[in-house]
Predict the structure.
Amino acid sequence: MRRAGNLLLAGLILAAVIGSFRYLDMDLPGIGQGDSLAQMGSYVLRFLHPDFSAAHVQAIGRGMLETLAMSALGTLLAAVFGLLLAIPAAGRLGWPLRSASRLLLNALRAIPELVWAVLMVLAAGLGPNAGTLALALHTTGVLGRLFAEALENTPPQPAAAIRLQGASAWQAFCYATLPILWPQLLAYTLYRWENNIRMASVLGFVGAGGLGQMLYVSLSLFQEAQASTVILAILALVLAVDAFSGWSRGRWVRG
């Protein structure tokens, strides 16, 4: 019976893949026909000569700082508001607030960053402000849900012991629950910052500032050399943030 079920599942997956190819009308063999490969090769070759002129490198430096600031500020705002929403979402303030906060967190998380960025561009105009708000809104939903689950799994005994000494609920949370949660909250926040630095590099495609906007302009004008330099800058920035985040988790979370 189990083998028959596995075969049926494999058959359904295969049928779904074949149906997807037919529905999307993809012509993969056509990619290698005619001069398609030669055109793709010549296009890729134009990216192998990055533009390292002083003016362009200075502009990229400003774009890197803008992207880094967008991701850092967006993550910081999300961590603060995510924690504020996580407290009622974990059921610490009663059932009605729990349901309302969870619904809000689900709504924030369900809308992708790019959609938030489009909405924020319409509301706040072009530039890094829109990108920062888009990252903050989506990441609040993600971190709020993670923080709420961490709160639900926190042992209540330390906070209860402080409450028995006459402390308020807020004091018990700050001095008993939060110190236990702090390493986990920091790890979640640093991990989301890694993701946001990548996403901040993409939001510029809808006018939300940063390196992504420079890349979009370069590609739109068929300036492959300038676009290549921007891509290298994005790669360097992502690697640097990943390394710093890993070092931070090792020093502050595990240490």
User: Anything to note?
Assistant: DSSP finds ten helices and no strands in the chain.
